[in-house]
């Protein structure tokens, strides 16, 4: 008789508070919120039974559910700056077992701030515990550098080697292999983890990963690097962003999506907004690609109609129920809603998000909107976000 497969639970701690990068766990890399990237890779793992996101934030919860995770509400006493990841994992594991009536055998801690973690890494640490007898495991990258540390008084003592004798410089091949902890993924035997209360106990296996993918996002510079690298790494793992084969229509909100959501009012009460020329270029490219286009806005404003005429795009504005108007438009055009990409930025766009196959939020959108989106631009509304989306769809940079 074949033994039942172990229950392997991946837990992604993702609280809302972040000082270094505000709303960090919802930041888009490669057009996908960090928390959603981690969920999707966990779900693609061969060994992971289920994925839990532990959070105190509604936007993160929406993004996690949209990517297919179970959400556990994290209590405030373990959601602050001093709370440990271990506390969040144990709480999430307890909540999952109680709600599902399942005993977890192996629990994983997966950090969504490591944007280039892949399912093979997750399977590697899971297999070390579930199949190879380790008590704990972690992802590491081969490291060949010389590590130095300053003395207590650098001006007087200078620095000394940590992993080497500074008076002796052996060749790389003559030195023992060192490994760098990536911070991306950990696996623990669940029973041992509860007893120890921390992620390292017993036998700890090192699971090697590609050093090129090692990046932890702690500050805006890290996020900028991740966004620059994403096209290189994500090209090997397609499917995160929409292409021309995925959609038949693009529907655009106006305020906050094609503008920066600010309004200038002159002394006569006339309203002015700023738009981005690059967005016009992107819309023209989409029109040439024979996609159906529509501007859909709650505001009844002459500037919306004027911009639509300039772009040669049909417009429906002054609409209270945008979802009903969108549904009717799809029926009239003979377009299946699941083949529609809708771009929005605020909570009144959420009903349309629930209707279409490709809900997309612009950077700077409301947290809940970004969380509900299937993809998020790296560019804010009014600063070229529509051009960025057009480049996704058409598979090329627009010039």
Number of DSSP helical runs:
13
Domain module count = 2
CATH architecture classification of the largest domain: Alpha-Beta Complex
| CATH classification class of the largest domain | Alpha Beta
Number of strands: 19
Report the average pLDDT across residues: 91
Report the radius of gyration as a whole number of Å.
Answer: 24 Å
State the end-to-end CA separation: 63 Å
Task: Tell me the quaternary state.
Answer: single chain
Strand content: 15-25%
Structural class: alpha/beta
Unreliable residue runs: none
Largest sheet: 7 strands, mixed
Instruction: Specify the helix fraction band.
Output: 25-40%
Query: How are the strands ordered across the major sheet?
Result: 5-4-1-6-10-7-11
CATH superfamily of the largest domain: Spore Coat Polysaccharide Biosynthesis Protein SpsA, Chain A
GO molecular function: hydrolase activity, acting on ester bonds; metal ion binding; N-acylneuraminate cytidylyltransferase activity
Keywords: Hydrolase, Magnesium, Metal-binding, Nucleotidyltransferase, Transferase
Pathway: Amino-sugar metabolism; N-acetylneuraminate metabolism
Pfam family, one: CTP_transf_3
